[in-house]
Design brief:
There is one protein chain. The protein is α/β, with parallel strands linked by helices and 316 residues long. Helix content is 42%, strand content 18%. The strands form two sheets. It has an eight-stranded parallel β-barrel, surrounded by five helices. The chain is globular. It binds flavin-adenine dinucleotide (FAD). The site of flavin-adenine dinucleotide has 23 residues, from strand 5, helix 5, helix 6 and strand 8.
Amino acid sequence: MHVITAIQQSKKPIISLEITPPDKGRSIEELYATLDVLVPFEPAFINVTYHQPQVVYEEKDGIIYRIPKRKKPGTVGICAAIANRYHIEPVPHFICGGFSKYETEDALIDLHYLGITNIFAVRGDPPPGQKTFIPNQDGHRYASELVRQIANMNEGIYLEELEDAQPTNFCIGVAGYPEKHYEAPNFEKDLYHLKHKVDQGAHYIITQMFFDFDVFKNFVEKARSIGITVPILPGIKPLTRISQLSSIPRDFHVSIPYHIVEAMEEARTREAARQVGIRKTIELCEQLIEYGVPGLHIYTMGRGQATCEVLKGLFG
Ligand code: FAD
């Protein structure tokens, strides 16, 4: 089922999960262990992130070899495994970085043949060791261009003219930033680019994580005021560790409100800090549900237990 259909048909806020593939060499059983505890909460779909390889150069016998080292391969394989094992809709993330638009087209055809009908389209972060995003030669610079390519294929428009070309049937999600994307000069400009992404054919938005209800509310109101009408799913990251109070703002360019930082820092033990983080996450979700969000999208980051505690706190 398309994500947009699941959202439209559900009478209550849907739950969706986001996972990252295991590090290369790890077992998929670890991922199953994470998902096994969460599947009883009936997630409508599960997103699987995609990671660009870090390119390193190694010299052997006087020859320089270019080696793309991908730490977390397997996005499409994991999607197939999820569909097989849990019969839950998988949503592979698809990025601009590292692909020409021709390679993108072929990869989209693969997904289409596999029966995957949902895609989350993002530009991608620069790979480790690189500061700025550099598009591939013949690749897309912005997610909106990737969205356009997918939407074109949904209309049977491929890169080359094909006779009687069959359309694909992808439902497309895109990323939104309640605190603005870190490269955008200001919030309004970023929102304008988000609207462009939606206008190119995106069906719904999932937000970057945020920790303050008012930040999300302001984002939704501003988005609606400029004519973004698609569903906006809030991205939720359960807080569990004091160290996240600095790592999350650093890695994701988001802020954590004073009352959360203070409460977690005042906790006497690690377990007490974890309990505060979970409680604050539950409170945020309760505010969002009260506000009428179409769903909650939870970033599990391989930690099913924290997500499980949040969902138990919300739904018993
Ligand atoms: P875009 O929408 O292309 O925007 C990037 C920047 O360019 C923004 O500052 C925007 O304002 C600006 N911009 C957009 N269009 C234009 C234009 N026409 N002219 C000038 N400026 C413009 N990264 C991964 O590598 N793999 C993943 O699986 C992944 N999953 C994610 C899931 C979610 C829910 C979120 C929120 C992020 C995810 N990311 C992932 C991170 C994402 O790739 C980065 O945040 C990236 O830096 C931006 O991606 P985007 O799709 O929002 O880019």
